[in-house]
Amino acid sequence: MLKQKHLIDAHKMVTFLALLGLMAWFDRWQNPTAWVYLALHGSYGLLWALKGQIFPDKQFDVPAAWWFVPLSLGGLSLYWGAGFIINAYDVQAPAWLLGLAVSMNLFGVFFHFTSDMQKYVALHLQPGHLVKDGLFARVRNINYFGELLIYLSFALLSMHWIPLAILAAYVLGYWVPSMFRKDKSLSRYPDFAEYKRGSRLFLPFLF
């Protein structure tokens, strides 16, 4: 049975090849920004697929409806926009921006992957309890914050507004509504109200 995770993982895995193809098509072998982008986004795609095998996210372990196939593949391909712009327009980011993007990406991978691992292990050992310690102690969706840093690092390397607009659309149109739905689901726990008062939804110290 085709599941959502199969489509998402497959798309993430081919990201490296897609970006390498863009470099070949536009002949950007001498562009350091294109190489850094390939290393960051391509590696993230492979790590995502690896994560899905070791500590999978149950929300994607559901059958994929026919309409989900073009929607997911088309929507996820929008994330390649920064890579297309970098290669098509030979964008060469300054050294300080390359350094910032790499650092931001590392922090993003840390928050995203370690929080997903914590949640997976916690619910495996103690199913049906509220995960509110460790990385989730102050931010209820620290995994989404990690993803924000990751995709923001990609967008910044393009030095263009379109990848930033695509990321903003995802955050406002999909991520934040998902977080509110999660809050509603977790409200069934007696200690959630207190946990909610002492934590942020998404952004540390802000929101």
Describe the structure.
The longest helix is centred in the middle third of the chain and has 31 residues, at 95-125. Helix 4 runs parallel beside helix 6 and helix 6 (142-158) runs antiparallel to helix 7 (161-186). With 207 residues, this protein is mostly helical. The chain is built from eight helices and no strands. The protein has helices spanning 4-26, 32-54, 68-77, 81-88, 95-125, 142-158, 161-186, 192-197. It is globular.
What is the domain total for the residues?
A: 1
Q: How many beta-strand elements?
A: 0
What is the first-to-last residue Cα distance? 39 Å
Task: Please work out how many helical segments DSSP would assign.
Answer: 8
**H and E order:** HHHHHHHH
Q: Which structural class do you get from the secondary structure elements?
A: mainly alpha
Layout of SSEs?
Layout: H1 4-26, H2 32-54, H3 68-77, H4 81-88, H5 95-125, H6 142-158, H7 161-186, H8 192-197
Helix pairs in contact: 1-2, 1-3, 1-4, 2-5, 4-6, 5-6, 6-7
In short:
By secondary structure, the chain is mostly helical.
Protein traits:
70% helix, mainly alpha, 207 residues, single chain
